[in-house]
Amino acid sequence: MHDYLVSVLLATGFEAKHLLPTRTIQGVDYSSCSFESSPEQSLLLLRTRFPVAMEKSVLALRCTAKFSLGWEQDTCQPEALVSMLEFANACDHTGLRMLTFHSIWVRTLKPRYLSLVSLIEKVGKAPKERLLLKDIAKGGVAMDNASTHAFAFVAQETMRQLVSVAANGSAGAGSVNGVPADTDERWTEHSNQGAEFSFLGDGCITDAATAAQPLNTFVVQQHAVLSCVVWAIVGFQLRSVRPLSLFSGRVRGMFFAPFEEDHPDLRERSASLASESVAIDQVHEDPEAATAAAALAELQSARRQFLCRALVAAVHHDTTAADSITTLPLPTVAEIFALADTLDLKQDDVLARQYVRNLYETARDGEAQAAIVRVADTAALAAALLEVAGHRLALLMDKRLSENALDVIARIPGDIYEWCTAVQASQPLPGQGGCKKVGPAAIRTLVQSTLALVSSDTATSQRLQQIVSALETFT
Question: Which of 74, 149, 196, 429 is spaced 20 to 30 A from 203 at the CA atom?
Fold first, then answer.
């Protein structure tokens, strides 16, 4: 059977039992294994059943191209997009990995990604599905919500892989070492039978690898940051955010430029970007320097607001997982903090306070206690946790959520009841991003932990003492 036909079978998801005369390979039962379940298993099955099949990395590249073509024909099937990424990851030849992921970006992702970023910039939030479904010529991306999330996730993973290969300098004429000599013949012998063979451009793999130029690491890294931002916006359906506003004008000028391009003042730009974080904390008598510092302060403020929203969504994701538009991964808390480091907000105290508050809101009190050590401004944290305590207490008095609400109200002083009601009015309900309902003991523990963060003569401390007194009436 020709390798081209094998790739067709692979792309259509034939099960292993339809291709193998035996259902075991090397003692492993593959009778229930489908090609869509594991690229590594699929490639093993193909190469075992068809000994003439090409080298594994080249076969993975061909399958990647096949799924890329399938997705372009129907952009509302995220499974093809994810399979394309999985087979690209199965390509373990260093040079071919660079060619594969670079081609995925240039030929498959870049045109629609530019449209997606432009659409988010226009509406200032994650676009609604009716806007996404519009054709590119009409300002959309011709994808539904699930496909757009898969698209953003694949773009982020592609950029992450490109950062890795770009940092290793994996390009150039030597990048095809180790690929069998007849690879090019097997790649091009059926070039007139499928459009996926244009995945690397005209010609053979060797020509493409030889013509490849080293990738500009800094430009690729900035695209990786942008892709992570867009992934968070689309995955968490964030509002009031424009991704390009999180980058300086110098960096915005690099977006969607060829990755091989040698920007003339790249070193100067990198040096200036590194020094700007110091300039914001200085008093400038020079008007130009003062203007630049103000612009940087505005930039960091926009970044901090975005990261806080993403952090809230990441921590609360477990409580809203049932409403997720896909089962694909979403940015984790660790990835949000890593993004903060990249955006020059390393160990930012506002983010640390937000994280502790979110943990308490989701009733993960043990994790919150451990995270308090990261906070420098304990007075500001205490004020935030006071609101959490008030919201927790209000949930006990909410007749919609508590069977004993009337009994709780009878035990609570009137001024505390009015204050808790006001706090609850400004917060969402559980399951909508608000606090989870907990018992009086958990509230008492939170209040006592918060009291340890502030001095006794503050208004926050006095309110906390009132809550402690009110909770003493509970057994």
Answer: 74
Contact indicator for 389, 450 with CB cutoff of 8 Å: yes
- The token duo for 185 is 């013949």
Give the CA diameter of the chain.
84
For the chain, which residues make up each domain, given as ranges? 376-475
Strand partners, 24: 29
Query: How far, in Å, CA of 269 to CA of 410, rounded?
Result: 64
**For residue 97, with 0-12 CB atoms within 10 Å meaning exposed, 13-18 middle and 19 or more buried, which class applies?**
buried
DSSP per-residue string spanning 339-369: HHHHTT-TT-HHHHHHHHHHHHHTT-HHHHH
- Name the DSSP letter for residue 23: S
- CA–centroid distance for 409 within its chain: 43
pTM for this one? 0.84
Question: Burial of 338 by CB count in 10 Å (0-12 exposed, 13-18 middle, 19+ buried)?
Answer: middle
Residue 57: what pLDDT? 78
Nearest to 467 by CA among 410, 420, 403: 420
Tokens read off for 239 = 């509002």
List the end-to-end C-alpha distance of the chain, in Å, as a whole number: 76
Answer for the pair 365, 406: CB distance below 8 angstroms, yes or no. Answer: no
What pLDDT is attached to residue 449? 94
- Is the pLDDT at 135 greater than 90? The verdict is no
